[in-house]
Write a structure and sequence with these properties.
Pathway: Secondary metabolite biosynthesis. It comes from Schizophyllum commune (strain H4-8 / FGSC 9210) (Split gill fungus). This is Cytochrome P450. Belongs to the cytochrome P450 family. InterPro entries: Cyt_P450, Cyt_P450_CS, Cyt_P450_E_grp-I, Cyt_P450_sf, Cytochrome_P450_fung. The chain has 496 residues and is α+β, with helices and mostly antiparallel strands. The protein has one domain: Cytochrome p450 (Orthogonal Bundle), CATH 1.10.630. It is built from 18 helices and ten strands. The strands form four sheets. The protein has a four-stranded mixed beta sheet. A hairpin with a 2-residue loop joins strand 1 and strand 2. It is globular, with a radius of gyration of 25 Å. 45% of the residues are buried.
Amino acid sequence: MGGVAVVTLATWLLVRSLQRPSEPLPPGPPKRPIIGNILLMDPEKGWETFHQWSKELNCPLVSLTGLGKTIIITNSLDSAKTILERSLASDRPQLMTMNELVGWKNSLIFSPFNDVWKRQRRLFHQVIGTRSSLTKYDAMKEIVAAKFVANLMEEPGKLEEHCHTFAGDLILRVTYGYVSKGYDPMIKMAEEITDAASEFGAPGKWLVDIFPLLRYVPDWFPGTGWKQAVKEQHDNVQKLMNTPYEWVKKEIDEGRAGPSFASELLSERNISEEELFAIKSAGSLFAGGAHTTVWAAYAFMKMICLHPEIQDRAQTEIDSVVGSDRLPLVNDMDSCPYTWACCLEALRWNVLLPLAVPHLAMDDSSYEGYLIPKGTIIISNLWAIARDESVYPDPYTIKPERYLGANPQRSPQDWVFGFGRRACPGRLMALESMFTVCATTLATMRISQKVRDGIPVPIDTTQTAGLASRPTPFEYEIKPRSEQAKSLVYDAVLAQ
């Protein structure tokens, strides 16, 4: 019997050794029994904490474990691209709050990696995913950019509001063919939902994401006020999906619909249920796209206000290429490399989704000897990538010229919109619209630091907390560069 016991024990130990991964997890902060270190996640500005841990541990990957979950954060461009561009990392974690309770589960951004998602992705790519597919929207981008500048001329103290109006107007036109009237209720609705999504989607924000059974706790139980907030957000998400869809459907039925993503799909044929949902879920892209476009433009304005020498050089280039008899066009982008570099530097300087949208590992893989187990939530720290000195020497200095010359540094467009098959399908639209509005502003306006009692008002260069971050407000002065510039802008707006 003793021999049998020894053989049995030896066999069990052998099996355990074979099952145990040969590679370790990436390093992480100190752990506690049972809960590990997963509760150390900072739900406010986790990107700064993760970056600091990565430096202290001298490793581009940081792992958090506990309560049956593993989270790995990539803090370098190489680690993010190597891991996240594999098809094995194309899934999304299904967070209880965002996906199940609020209702983002089947939207293109948060959907699991499945056949429905693949078909939706293909639809979006066909309509807005290539330069040729976007050409028909060029006039829209140019008109909306002119309206933005006209609004600045009329009400120069409302830069932030005008950025919202510009972005919302553009995305609504492209997605649904809806022409907004100023700071439109539909734009406001999308902004409020995006702000709430930023709060709900912040990693580590909600205990129900770690303990899913908390969803079944009765509403009357103490400490369940979060359930009412979730219900309100769920209702708002449904409204975001249905309101613009019902509007464009009515426009098509009455023969008034202009070109848009939704009308293109609805008008051509009898659409499938999946295509119908893709049109409705375009609302999520509208909300996300509006956030990116609003704050990218705002960050650009803040950057050139801080650095008048950058504004001078960009305006000289615009004047040389465009002249004084017309406004910039989308097609001027390739002829204005410095202005384009300014757009890229604004995206790097103020990363708008600092922790991106998490991926989920669908199978075991590894990176530089570290294990990434199946089921791991993978967070890409884009804020840290923007400060990766191996990619961007002197990362805390604003230098648009870093993307120019014989040896340009890596363009932020390679990572700021995500990685692999989960990269944002509307990134070309976002980049072209950002260039157009920034170039139009440079051609016609001059922005400078606010001066009070003879002293320039300091500009705060930090950004807000949350999943979807933004530049902090700043004080400024802005005025037209000339009467000719004013005439060009007003003529363009009247001609639409």
